[in-house]
Write a structure and sequence with these properties.
The complex is a heterodimer of chains A (about 140) and B (about 425). By secondary structure, chain A is α+β, with helices and mostly antiparallel strands. Chain A contains six helices and three strands. The two termini of chain B are about 35 Å apart. Classes of the chains: A alpha+beta (about 140), B alpha/beta (about 425). Chains A and B meet through α1 of A and α12 of B.
């Protein structure tokens, strides 16, 4: 069996959770990875006080790694406050994926979803994502 | 033995030290030759010897080392000239690679010969390096770029070429062999068609010169561009061939040292060919390495290399048909193509496939291969590409096929 494509990644790839769109979302963000053409859009519906995530969906196209990791991410952040979302690190993503030995190229696929999510949240909060510092 | 047909491939493999290495614990299977080739020991040694024994700058030195370096550098030019059958050695200009060669033409020829409304005719199967320089020329000169269509089989649509080749076309510029489809284009015929319409003809030989016998006089092309690193030589060295009468009329590309005869406060006079186009210190070690690579290729024979690659390619195509859901792009007849097989397996993303192959020690390329207009034409975001060279074997293809079958089980249950 493959070292990278473990059952958990394949499961999310074959049966993506939270794929789709939201009506009247509060936050919409999108980015792509020019290297492989992975393209992810995330839509978020916020709670009444506009402080936490009530619903989140993603759509787009890409490889198994990017699709599985963004799908896991959407489950991870369901109900979290925007401040809490800001604290999610790339290590959290790697852990969710089962810490596979991704090379430097494929790491970008794994982190695209987190980058899009943070872009959206930071933008909504009126600040800027320091992607260099966060390694995204 | 499966493959003693054209030469002893196992003996050839001995010449390439990197082929002994393991990747993720598995023997390396290098199927990324269209990106860059591996280097035989004697090329590595030729470069090493230059730095170790006679490193010096060329052309101006009067000392012994400079003379030796100059001689080796210019001998490499002679080897290239002979290899492509140029009429004169001064038709061979050393550049960094195919990209620089085409940019040189677009600047030093295009800027002075292409006017507003005139056209550069390229094709849908070009690499970005034969597209973007012409877009840049369009920005400078308000000229146009037109794309000749390809057929569904992945061949050039000659009828469309004929229709688009009108009196506005100043240059026809195309890949001899496509870096994605592998298609070998009928350059001799296209050269004739171009010249009938008074257009010049540029051949992008990046994927053909390393694998086929390319004869510039037979093709009668006006320009030929190719890279050393795809033909067993080092990176950073490539060649622009151009007919002498065209080079003589062209302006220099870069200005600086080594390309001038004299410089005064009132101006400068250029050196004669080919040095007029080689400003600054050239990649001396690179040229020497390329010369050695050519000697090595000739010691085996380009015809034999072509036959071997054809054999490997048709075997690969045959075995890939065993796999369900495989879609191959480009001609499926090895006679019509170089050793390049681009494909998709179901809807598995090429990057997933390439990662899985890498885990088995197999190096392939996945992505748009710097040919996005072609991806748009094929209506796909990317492909996986296996590309062969003289040292690949059918046993390697067997491992590749088994891994594709495994990938299918993992991703398409």
């Amino acid at each position: 069996m493959s070292d990278i494509y473990r059952e958990i990644i394949l499961d999310y790839y074959r049966h993506p959770r939270n794929q789709g769109k939201i009506e009247n979302p509060d936050i919409v963000a999108r980015d792509s990875n020019p290297l492989c053409g992975d393209d992810i859009e995330i839509q978020i519906k916020l709670s009444k006080d506009k402080k936490s995530i009530e619903d989140i969906k993603f759509n787009g196209k890409g490889c198994a790694i990017s699709q599985a990791s963004v799908s896991m991410l959407t489950e991870m952040v369901q109900g979290l406050s925007l401040e809490e979302v800001k604290g999610i690190s790339k290590e959290d993503i790697f852990e969710a994926l089962g810490n596979p030995d991704l090379g430097p190229t494929r790491v970008k696929c794994a982190l695209l979803g987190l980058k899009v999510l943070k872009l959206g949240v930071y933008n909504y909060l009126g600040s800027k994502l320091d992607s260099e510092r966060e390694g995204l | 033995m499966l493959e003693a047909k054209y030469y002893d491939v196992y003996k050839i493999r001995e010449d390439f030290p990197i082929l002994k290495r393991k990747v993720h614990g598995k023997p390396l299977i290098y199927f990324d030759n269209a990106a860059t080739s591996q280097k035989p020991q004697r090329v590595i040694e030729a470069i090493y010897r230059y730095y170790k024994e006679y490193n010096a700058n060329i052309h101006r030195g009067v000392h012994k080392l400079a003379e030796e370096a100059t001689e080796a550098f210019e001998e490499a030019r002679d080897k290239v000239a002979k290899f492509i059958n140029a009429r004169y050695r001064e038709e061979v200009i050393f550049v960094r690679g195919t990209t620089e060669a085409i940019n040189l033409v677009s600047r030093a020829w295009g800027d002075y010969n292409v006017k507003e409304g005139e056209k550069i005719l390229i094709t849908e199967m070009e690499h970005h390096s034969n597209i973007v320089p012409w877009f840049l020329l369009s920005d400078r000169k308000k000229s146009k770029v037109e794309f000749v269509k390809i057929t569904d089989e992945g061949l050039l649509d000659i009828q469309d070429l004929n229709e688009k080749l009108d009196e506005k076309v100043k240059l026809v510029s195309l890949a001899h062999s496509s870096n994605v489809l592998g298609t070998i284009n009928p350059v001799k015929e296209i050269s004739k068609l171009s010249h009938e319409k008074n257009a010049l003809f540029l051949v992008d030989g990046a994927q053909s010169v390393p694998h086929l016998k390319v004869d510039v006089q037979e093709i009668d092309c006006d320009f030929l561009a190719f890279s050393g690193h795809k033909m067993l030589g080092p990176t950073g060295i490539g060649v622009l061939y151009a007919k002498r009468e065209i080079l003589e009329k062209m302006e220099p590309f870069l200005g600086g040292g080594d390309m001038i005869k004299e410089v005064h406060k009132w101006g400068a006079r250029w050196k004669e060919l080919p040095w007029k186009y080689e400003a600054g210190t050239s990649n001396i070690a690179g040229a020497i390495g390329l010369g050695e690579a050519i000697s090595y290729l000739l010691s085996i024979g380009m015809d034999k290399i072509r036959e071997h690659e054809k054999d490997i390619t048709s075997y690969t195509l045959k075995r890939m048909r065993e796999i369900e859901n495989v879609k191959i792009y480009g001609p499926e007849d090895a006679n019509k193509k170089c050793g390049i097989v681009s494909f998709n397996l179901g809807d598995i993303h090429p990057h997933d496939l390439a990662t899985l192959l890498d885990e088995e020690g197999i190096a392939v390329r996945a992505g748009h291969h710097c040919a996005q207009p072609l991806m748009e034409r094929l209506n796909i975001p990317a492909t996986t590409r296996a590309s062969f060279y003289l040292y690949n074997t059918k046993e390697e293809v067997d491992v590749f096929i088994e891994t594709l079958k495994k990938a299918q089980k993992i991703f398409l249950p």
